[in-house]
Amino acid sequence: MEKRNKKQEKLSDFSDRSTSREFSAGGVVFKKAKEEKSRKKRVLWLVTKSSPSKIYPKSYWRFPKGWLDDEYGGKKPGALARGERKATEKEIQDAALREVQEEAGVKAKIIKKIGSERYFYKIKERLITKFVTFYLMEWQKDLPEGFGSETSKVEWLVYDEARKKLLHSGERKVLDKAEESFRFGNSGKSVIIGAQGEVA
User: Fold this and answer.
1) Closest-CA residue to 18 (of 103, 117, 94, 123)
2) Contacts of 59 (CB under 8 A, 6+ apart)
3) Which architecture characterizes domain 17-184 according to CATH?
4) Is the CB of residue 57 less than 8 Å from the CB of residue 51?
5) CA-to-CA separations, 114 to 7, 29, 109, 171, in angstroms, rounded
6) What is the model's pTM?
7) pLDDT tens-digit series, residues 63-73
8) Strand 106-123 versus strand 126-142 pairing type
């Protein structure tokens, strides 16, 4: 009899259970900061630590992201997030900017779309496939109200440190793409970033 690998077993565990899709958006936010002593510019990346929840009882580091829309005061995904209607690009961008404000407490502007990542999680007997569209964003200012209750901590880190913090491998890939697109920019010109995030 042919042996199944662990991934096949995990997916087959859900074959007889109900499944659903969700659509979300988020931001990979960077800012350029000058060091006080050397006055060199550094590129820092924003990561947020989640607050414990029913689905994720342990806190973990991630990028700010969330449903395209919601219902019942944020307790359930809305029609766009459930995929009942295809969202426009503007609706996806607006959701990403909103989530960055709510979960990170910052205002940012979108530079470009990075791409989408897929996540799997379950609630009781239901498997949910979540598709998240991420955008590269540049920090503009901190908001006076700070971050919301879904976040317990926010940090600005250089690329290597931010990458180590992120729990999901998909988000590490997103950071890789963001950092690469930042290095070369939309014009194709190279921007040299050192190991500690310094800009040459």
Assistant:
1) 123
2) 49, 50, 51, 52, 152
3) Alpha-Beta Complex (3.90)
4) no
5) 27, 12, 14, 11
6) 0.80
7) 999 999 998 88
8) antiparallel
